[in-house]
Design a protein that fits this description.
- The protein has 153 residues and is mainly alpha-helical.
- The protein has one domain: Cytochrome c/b562 (Four Helix Bundle (Hemerythrin (Met), subunit A), Up-down Bundle), CATH 1.20.120.10.
- Helix content is 61%, strand content 4%.
- It has a two-stranded antiparallel ribbon.
- Helix 4 runs antiparallel to helix 5.
- The longest helix is centred in the N-terminal third of the chain and has 28 residues.
- The protein is globular and about 45 Å long.
- It starts with a helix and ends with a strand.
- 22% of the residues are buried.
- Bound molecules: heme C.
- Heme C (HEC) binds next to helix 2, strand 1, helix 4 and helix 5.
- The site of heme C (HEC) has 24 residues, from helix 2, strand 1, helix 4 and helix 5.
Length: 153
Amino acid sequence: MTGLIIIATGGILHAHFAQQVLKTDMTDADQIVGTRKFLMQAVKVSMIDLSKKQKAGHIKDISANGTSIAAIATVMPPLFKDRHPKSYPFKGSKSYFKGAASADFESASEKLRAAGMATMQAAEKADPTELDSGIGALKSSCGSCHATFRGKY
Ligand code: HEC
């Protein structure tokens, strides 16, 4: 089954991805770290999908990617309140959260949310210039947040 999932998604998801759902207990640090990592994975595949649609000229279809990325950005900050260093290294992942002041992480998440919304609106209008700027803002928000708050082993 795992093999099928990996083939179906073009091999981009590692073997540890989505093998089982989390428990309802969000007092457990591993659960919080798992939640934030899987959300980031969803953002990543949405960006890959977005690029494919843009190359194929399916501009209006990019609206769904902007919407889902904005939705994910909206729920990110509470998951990044604590570093949870004991939950790292996390199986199947080479990155970790360095920790952040809440206000800084909220404003970095807000940039991702706003860029997702701008991308969604530009796609709906099929406006290529606005779409380029929305996608540019998405990419720069990933880069600047990662440069500040993400560590790699
Ligand atoms: C507000 C900050 C922030 C933004 C914006 C952000 N990320 Fe992340 N991302 C993080 C942090 C922090 C981690 C490390 C999380 C961890 O290891 O627990 C991470 C980890 C990741 C990972 C690795 C997940 C894993 O399995 O370990 C991927 C992939 C990723 N981000 C993709 C993206 C993409 C693509 C974008 C932009 C479209 C983006 N992120 C925007 C903060 C952000």
